[in-house]
Amino acid sequence: MSNEQMEHRLVPTHVAVIMDGNGRWAKQRGLPRSAGHKQGAKVFEKICDHCQKIGVQYVTAYAFSTENWKRPQNEVDAIMDLLRSYLQETLKQAKRNVRLIFLGERAPLAPDLQRLIEQAEESSAQNTGITVCVALNYGGRAEIVHGVQKLAQLAADGELNPACIDEALLGQSLYTKGIPDPDLMIRPSGECRISNFLLWQMAYTEFVFLDVLWPDFTPAHLDRAIDQYAKRNRRFGGI
Question: Would residue 68 show up in a list of annotated catalytic residues for this protein?
Fold first, then answer.
C-alpha cells in the first residue's frame, strides 16, 4: 500500500509492539539466539521508520521485561549490548528527528547503560518527529505498583488527600505520563497474550496477533495490522 493510500484511512496515533520470536527465528536457522535479537533490532528500526512515514505519532516496543532476567546470561548480555549500540548510534546523529523515551525501572541496569539512556532522552527531548518508547526492564504490574507507591507516599506526607486519587491521577504517576494510550497493539510470533505489557494503558486498545516471527516482520505486516484496526468499531464501552 502506498503512502498516499495510507493517508486516506484511519492510522492509529499510538502503536504498541511486542517484539516476539527472535529466539525461535534463530533456532530455525541453526543460529545463536543473539543473532535473532540482532535481526530483530534491525526490524525495529525499519518499522519505526515506516510508522513515521505513514503518520503514527507514538511507537512503544517491549524490548526487555522484568521477567527476561531469567534468561541465560549470555542472551541477556547480547540484548544489552544491542541496546548500547543503538543508543550510541542515536547519540552520534539526530536520528530521523525521533524522540526517545524509556519505560521501566533503570536501577538494575549497568551504570553505563543508564547514562546512555539519560543522554539519549535528553538529546532527543526537543525532537518533533515520532516518539519511540522503549519498554526496558518493564513490567505492567510493577509499573502500577510503582505509581501507587508514589501516590501513597504523597498521602503519607500530607500532600495528597487519598479521596482525590482517581484514574487520571494514577495515570499521571505511571512511566507513560503524558503519552496517549495505545490504539493498536501488535504481537507477532503466533502467541496470543499480552505478557504483562502496558496493563493499565491497554484497557481499550485493539489487539492484532500475527503468525510471523518478529525478525521476519515487515512494513507490509504492519500495514495489514492497521487495516484490521481501521475496520474495527471502537465504542469505548458505549453503543
Answer: yes
